[in-house]
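User: I'm curious whether this sequence folds into something compact or stays loose and floppy. Could you predict its structure so I can see for myself?
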Amino acid sequence: MPAVVVLGAQWGDEGKGKATDQLGSRIDYVVKFNGGNNAGHTVVVGGEKYALHLLPSGILSPGVVPVIGNGVVIDLEVLFQEIEALEARGVDTSRLLVSSAAHVIAPYNRTLDKVTERFLGSRRIGTTGRGIGPTYADKINRVGVRVQDLFDEKILRQKVEGALDQKNHLLVKVYNRRAITVDETVEDLLRFADRVRPFVADTPLVLNQALDAGKTLVFEAGQATMLDIDHGTYPFVTSSSATAGGACTGSGVGPTRIDRVVAVAKAYTTRVGEGPFPTELLDDDGEWLRRTGGEFGTTTGRPRRTGWYDAVVVRYAARVNGLTDLVLTKLDVLTGKDRIPVAVAYDVDGTRHDEMPADQSDFHHAKPVYEYLDGWTEDITGAREFDDLPVAAQRYVERLEEISGTRISSIGVGPGREATIIRHDLLA
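Assistant: Here's the prediction. I'll summarize afterward.
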């Protein structure tokens, strides 16, 4: 049975949770391997909408074991708020497993995230202010707090002291904020120790044993390819590895055990935060896409920036992730347009680029080279077979498949679980 990575091909918010959910009853484990509560998945089940931030979307599928891997940074208060909200709606969360090696977002990380972003002014990155970046920085600087540290107060206190020795100088002398005490931080973190303990496990061992037993695992990325710390539009990126390689480092499962890599892309493009966006629309078409597509952040509620489909970006995602399949979402949003532009290349100071420019400055100045495809006016939300789509919609999908370099195996034509056209089995 396969191990499948599901990730975003663009700048996030592509519908990865729905793609994971489509695999349904054939999945045994769903593993979140990167990020934190700075991104969200919206999943619609039976007309009910669920907004997930830290929890893997598999939490909504009976019998599936949801796993928060070692590559995730965890805000424990947010985690238990999500658990309580789901349990109040009748969702069983008792199967959840949390890696003992996952890092914890301490209160000082959230404070630093917010004050640093304000201090940067026009050079701001556009973070969510939830402490994600500072927590990953602590991890790399080897002063981070891990879940397992909550069960040894002496170790926890030593780690917090070491972190605050430096951070308080920064807060007080640079940002003119009050110092944070060790006692208040330790107290804040310890209040979650007993609650999280039943969920904690050696998740790399659990996952590898599951693969040995023939179980099906899905590795679910937070954020997306173009926000990856190495392969995204640096520095306007997240602080973790959101590409396929991150599935291995963030879960403890080796690359030889991954069978399929599935990317999700909208039939157009969106992003939040700062940074270059070649196909961005700052006109009525952009507002139409935002309004029709409901393009407001699951986590922050921020209006998303919108633009036409960018095949250069998706080709790049296919290359750096080794994609086997593409899931296209929100095709129905484009209904009603006479012509639909698709970016097939970039123009950078008079030079055509068919692939992603290696130089960030070139990408920042890239102008899209558009190809125009016929639109359609028919309602496609009831389509369940590819042939149910209007001819123009079929041609649109086929052209995207051709210029994106990866087969389109599934097409979303509405927000619900059932509003999907399956062209190829993602697990075959």
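Summary: The longest strand covers residues 339-348. The chain has 13 helices and 20 strands.
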